[in-house]
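Saturday, quiet lab. Running sequence design on the structure tokens for the scaffold JK sent over.
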């Protein structure tokens, strides 16, 4: 039992470190938020998080469509969150719809606001879910 608890604590520490490194990477690229289109990105893994359970005890699973680094935390952006629709970030009939959009600090703050009490942003997720999301972040940067 002790070995299992120690292994779980080590895994938690590694994922926390990986999240910190993602925040640092985003800062180095002057990105506060990255939003991607799951339908066109072609990721190897579908970025999903279990955010709770419904009244019947079934998992509530939401797709993640991006990341928002805010106040030294890394939030997953849930699909269909307000102001994260790709349609908001290009001129219809003029531009090609983007697959990935990045927002600097000022624009992210203006467009997305404070994620702390906004249910469309979450810190939840298991270690494997966050590893899949991290993979999507790097794949999105390569698009």
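Result came back. Writing it out in full:
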């Amino acid at each position: 039992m002790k070995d299992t608890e120690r292994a779980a604590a080590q895994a938690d520490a590694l994922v926390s470190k990986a999240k910190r490194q993602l925040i640092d990477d985003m800062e180095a690229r002057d990105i506060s938020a990255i939003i991607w289109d799951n339908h066109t990105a072609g990721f190897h893994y579908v970025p999903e998080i279990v955010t709770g359970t419904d009244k019947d005890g079934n998992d509530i699973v939401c797709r993640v469509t991006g990341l928002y680094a805010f106040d030294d935390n890394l939030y997953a952006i849930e699909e269909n969150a307000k102001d994260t629709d790709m349609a908001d970030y290009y001129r219809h009939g003029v531009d090609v719809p983007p697959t990935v959009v990045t927002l600097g600090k000022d624009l992210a703050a203006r467009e997305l606001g404070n994620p702390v009490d906004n249910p469309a942003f979450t810190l939840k997720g298991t270690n494997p879910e966050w590893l899949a999301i991290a993979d999507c972040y790097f794949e999105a940067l390569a698009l």
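Notes for JK: The longest strand covers residues 59-70. The chain has a mean pLDDT of 92. Ask whether to fix the surface positions before the next round.
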